[in-house]
Write a structure and sequence with these properties.
Rossmann fold, about 40% helix, 7 strands, about 230 residues, 7-stranded mixed beta sheet, about 15% strand
């Protein structure tokens, strides 16, 4: 069974409690990562350059990463949301400017099924040194993100309703392109400041409730799918 809804969901800070890369850097990386982070915060470098410089500072290889990831918790409402999506034919995809192997490890640990994962690719050499490659990097001049969320959204299916769920800076660009946006924290502030219609959320229960309504509406009148205002 398939529905008329595609869901594109951020990972770090949206599905997880906190940012997995920050957790790994705090636990395993040479302290030099902090100076690189400051350059990113000041806008001197983009997230792609920032992560490309920071990830090689992580010690202990993938085995060390796995031990730290055991501390990372997810939003307890997400597994049921993912199961609901699968049962109702709602395509659920994770699109993250984080690390692919980290995402897949946590999903497997929690026994969560999604339809696809797009993220930056982690590589480990024979000496357990880690680095990132960026197979989905933006082709737009001046964009420093590791992954182009707008491009992935654009290349998606032609289903009537494309839904974006996010929380941070990496979600700013595609929030203006989606049919329906669920936002919290930095993304919610961005949407309000830029008059981008969105639904504020705290957990995936609310998202599921809204999408259940959309499933019944989408076949009737596509023009009515966009929310009229920001809900706080």
């Amino acid at each position: 069974m398939s529905s008329s809804i595609d869901v594109y969901c951020d990972f770090d800070g949206t599905i997880t409690r906190g940012d997995t890369i920050d957790v790994l850097l705090e636990a395993l990386a040479d302290p030099a990562w902090r100076a690189i982070e400051e350059r990113w915060i000041k806008g001197e470098i983009g997230s792609r350059e920032c992560m490309a410089l920071q990830v090689p500072l992580i010690r202990g290889g993938w085995d060390g990463v796995v031990r730290v990831l055991d501390q990372v918790k997810i939003d307890p409402t997400f597994p049921k949301f993912a199961a609901w999506c699968r049962k109702n034919g709602v395509s659920l995809k994770i699109v993250s400017d984080g690390i692919d192997r980290v995402i897949r490890h946590i999903l497997k640990r929690e026994n969560i099924h999604v339809d696809n994962v797009w993220a930056n690719h982690l590589v480990e050499d024979e000496n357990k040194n880690l680095q990132l490659t960026f197979p989905h990097a933006p082709q737009v001049l001046g964009c420093g993100s590791g992954l182009c969320k707008c491009r992935i959204l654009e290349m998606g299916s032609s289903r009537p309703l494309k839904v974006v769920i996010g929380d941070g800076r990496s979600d700013f660009c595609w929030s203006a392109e989606a049919d329906l946006v669920f936002a919290k924290t930095k993304l919610l502030s961005h949407c309000k400041q830029n008059n981008i219609a969105c639904v504020a959320y705290e957990d995936f229960h609310l998202i599921r409730n809204v999408l259940e309504e959309k499933l019944s509406e989408v076949a009737v009148a596509v023009p009515h799918l966009k929310p009229a205002a920001v809900y706080s």
